[in-house]
Amino acid sequence: MIEAFSIEELQHEMNVNYFGIARMFKAVLPDMRDRGDGLIITISSLTGRLVFPGFPT
Prior knowledge:
Blueprint lengths: L6 H29 L22
């Protein structure tokens, strides 16, 4: 199934689902640390724990 997706499509998925979250953390954590307070709640789908080969996330 990996042949069904272009490298650009896979890069987009990683940018949104992985690097996007990392960028958000890096953006908000310094302010939270300075204030000494804050809460980050992440919400994920079932596909974060159960993966079907070739199933788009």
